[in-house]
Amino acid sequence: MNQMIQNMTGMGGMTDQVIATDFLIAAKTGVKNLALAITETSTPEVRDTLKQYLNDAIDTHEQIFKYMVDKGYYHPNNLGEQLSVDLQASQTALNLAQGNAQS
Q: Fewer Cβ atoms within 10 Å of its own Cβ: the N or the C terminal residue of the chain?
């Protein structure tokens, strides 16, 4: 997103964080769904294919997780810092919603 649009919407650097968070949640959902599908499969060929997909999904999750930690978007070992990041994201979302309601 270009800088002018980011400034107009009040999103600034939040855009990358929002996208990464959404991607991380989707990756977690994919891991859960694939694990469930493996337990429901009756043929070895399908099970093996799903296991490979599961391993790929776990690898993807790890990459997103590391990206978020490196960027300071996610603090799994520091609850206070994570709370601060989450509160800031919440405030940005509220400000954006209020700005859109007034328009």
A: C
Listed residue (7, 10, 21) closest to 72, CA to CA: 21
pLDDT at 8: 52
Q: Tell whether the torsion through CA atoms of 43, 49, 52 and 57 is positive or negative.
A: negative
- Summarize pLDDT for 81-95 with one digit per residue, the tens: 989 988 887 887 787
Residue 71: both structure tokens together: 């960027």
Token representation of residue 54: 């599961």
Question: Whole-angstrom Cα distance, residue 94 to residue 59?
Answer: 33
| Dihedral Cα 30, 65, 10, 7, nearest 10 deg | -110
pLDDT at 58 over 90: yes
Instruction: Kindly list the domain boundaries of the chain, sorted by start residue.
Output: 15-102
Say how many Å lie between the first and final Cα of the chain, rounded: 21
